[in-house]
Amino acid sequence: MDLALAPETLARWQFGITTVYHFLFVPLTISLAALTAGLQTAWVRTNKEKYLRATKFWGKLFLINIAMGVVTGIVQEFQFGMNWSDYSRFVGDIFGAPLAFEALIAFFFESTFIGLWIFGWDKLPKKIHLACIWMVSIGTIASAYFILAANSWMQHPVGYKINAQRGRAELTDFWLVLTQNTTLNQVFHTLSAAFLTGGAFMVGIAAYHLARKRHIAEMKTSLRLGLITVVIAGMLTALSGDTLGKVMFKQQPMKMAAAEALWDGEDSAPFSVFAYGDVEKGRNTVAIEIPGLLSFLADNDFSSHVPGINDINKAEQARFGPGDYRPMIPTTYWSFRWMIGFGMSSFLLGLVGLWLTRKKFWLAPALRTGEDEVPHLALFKNKALNPKLARVYWLLALWTLAFPLIANSWGWIFTEMGRQPWAVYGVLQTRHAVSPGVSQGEVITSMSIFTALYAILAVIEVKLLVKYIKAGPPELTEDDLNPPTRIGGDDADRPMAFSY
Amino acid sequence: MELHDVWFVLIAVLWIGYFFLEGFDFGVGILTKLLARDRTEKRVLINTIGPVWDGNEVWLLTAGGATFAAFPEWYATLFSGFYLPLLIILLCLIVRGVAFEYRAKRPEENWQRNWEHALFWTSLIPAFLWGVAFGNIVRGVKIDKNFEYVGNFWDLLNPYALLGGLVTLTLFTFHGAVFAALKTVGDIRTRARSLALKLGLVTAVAALGFLIWTQTNHGDGWSLAAMLVAVVALLAAIGANQIGREGWAFAFSGVTIVAAVAMLFLTLFPNVMPSTLNPAWSLTVTNASSSPYTLKIMTWCAGIATPLVLLYQSWTYWVFRKRIGTQHIAEPAH
């Protein structure tokens, strides 16, 4: 059969499409839940109306996102059985457990409390209602943790043995699966990237309104909250990316050699800035490099030996039998670069923004602004940016809103494509993981329908987001400010304060 | 009782929970077309399940995840074998979830009407297909010696399974009508009650046929007992609805679902998915299950998490126990 239409290839495409699509919503959901919870906490503590308006504004955007995150997540869970049944048979004993934990512990929690939060504004006492959104936030994070534990096991299988009689892998140490360094580093990296995503989203939208001098009080707060989130999360993302990279160098040397297009092992290996190579011949034709940096990144030592693609391929052939153990080098190489490039650009812009909008006492008195004025953007203590440059800053903040989302997608493409040809590194190859009983036609059908549906929903979702972003924070009513909280009872025929 | 038997029971419980809970929210989704007279009434119906449908749906995700972890072979055969029906169910659940959240996000009547159409069909189709799927599981399907499903899509559309689909469809709609009567006030409540009677009678006919067919081909003493409970509860639900005891009617329609699904699992045990080609190729609780270690860990998790889930989900139902009517819908917020 033509390789391009082989069920394995199609199943991989479908998995890739649904995963990348699902992961557009997940990081925003995780970060916006926590940021909304933070704003609502500020409202409950200070009673300042701007916090309530900001809570309702970001909460709405959060809900539009989580709806898509939830429904695309169902597809993720069912796909293992539908398209990867041999995978499920072989590793279900291990891989199924964190998924079941996720559903039982995290997902029930999240989905129940989100219903309470959406409909509970006038039903629950203020503090209990606030607790609900924090519960949602905890749920999203716990959910990410269990899923990443499962994924990390595919990157670096631990705590299992092969049962030859049943022809499958069996769990021997669940605690190890939950706490191995791959899991912890991946959780740290993914969560910090999620907050970078939400922070940049907040900054971009706040900049949009501030540039138009609208909803100033709420957007000023949101801008600062977003910028601080971007900067802290950006630093943590870089830091965790570095430690995750070191772990991967040890556990998946092929992935990291491919990420660097390092064909042959070197002492004092260079970091590749740009490379163009010939996969067949196994070498680069063009390469711009920083000497020694790769060795340092891999091992904290500029002169360490780093094995190359060709060496590792030979070693794996010796270990696992004949075959090609190289992932797609160009995809791996470029996805790694786009991930870092987009993520770090966003972080740097956040850093600049944080400096430009710094607080009062850093600025000359003439530049200080009140609650309802657009902040002066000041490069120096007593000199504001000229209006043209300020306009560029607001636009730049808006345009880079999606940078971390792009970085996230490339990050997943890198980490999953770099693991190929393995589904479970060193244990099960992807071509042995597909469902043997599912036909080419069935996968083509499902893939085309999912892709078309996702495209339509993406348009609807973006239009809705734009509508609610443009509308800005809602006007508050007396009921919003002092909700007459009654649990149940049917004493009044007043319309419900907040619902779909 | 070994751990894999415990997990068979737990998975049965998860499916029972799913059909009990999402059963009525599927039903309410279907009723938005049959019962509601205008947009405001549609909105009332949607709001009766608004705070809870998401939590209800997680029962399905948990049933799926738990099957993956406790019976990987069952999960693999079932999900790859029923590929196209599951695809349709997934598409429905995607559109349905989005429909709830997005319907009121724009004021245009057209926009809302489209999502209402979507809500109706995406509630109706899965309500039917789940019955078809379970009918096939109980009846047995073409499974070869490698536990692969070797039948095709059309094999799944046999009369027994289709009748099963009709039963879940009518039963869930009845359950939804009873729930709507319990959760609303005013005119819509009265109409929900009279529609529930008609739906109840149709359900009774379909269910009686399906359950007797099941009992004749696959049943034993235990399944007979479950069947009798289901039938009596269904009649009691219809009766309670007639005399206006809405709480009781809902409890009884719930018991009907519990008993009927329990009956299906009782006829299944110790198989989890029988093969029609050769009984030796059937998936059973032993040959489909995970290792004792995994089952032990999962048992701990379920033992601690399930009571908590029941606790906070019940609390949600308590918080939103108030009946709602058209007067609770703010005009601009359709």
Automatic annotation (TrEMBL), chain A:
| Protein family membership | Belongs to the cytochrome ubiquinol oxidase subunit 1 family.
Q: Name one GO molecular function term.
A: electron transfer activity
The record, for Pfam families, names: Cyt_bd_oxida_I
Q: Which organism is it from?
A: Streptomyces laurentii
- List, alphabetically, the InterPro entries matched: Cyt-d_ubiquinol_oxidase_su_1
Spans through the membrane? 20-45, 57-75, 95-119, 131-150, 187-211, 223-241, 336-356, 392-413, 443-466
Designated name of the protein: Cytochrome oxidase subunit I
An individual GO BP term = aerobic electron transport chain
Annotated membrane topology? Multi-pass membrane protein
Subcellular location, principal: membrane
Can the keyword GTP-binding be found in this entry's annotation? Answer: no
Q: Cite the entry's keywords alphabetically.
A: Cell membrane, Electron transport, Heme, Iron, Membrane, Metal-binding, Transmembrane, Transmembrane helix, Transport
From TrEMBL, chain B:
Q: To which species is this protein native?
A: Streptomyces laurentii
The name under which this protein is listed is: Cytochrome bd-I oxidase subunit II
Keyword terms, alphabetized: Cell membrane, Electron transport, Heme, Iron, Membrane, Metal-binding, Transmembrane, Transmembrane helix, Transport
An example Gene Ontology molecular-function term: oxidoreductase activity, acting on diphenols and related substances as donors, oxygen as acceptor
State its location(s): Cell membrane
Spans through the membrane = 6-36, 82-99, 119-140, 160-182, 194-215, 221-240, 247-269, 297-320
> Which family is this protein grouped under?
Belongs to the cytochrome ubiquinol oxidase subunit 2 family.
Record membrane topology: Multi-pass membrane protein
PANTHER family tied to this protein = CYTOCHROME BD-I UBIQUINOL OXIDASE SUBUNIT 2 (PTHR43141:SF5), CYTOCHROME BD2 SUBUNIT II (PTHR43141)
Any GO BP: aerobic electron transport chain
Highest taxon in the source lineage: Bacteria
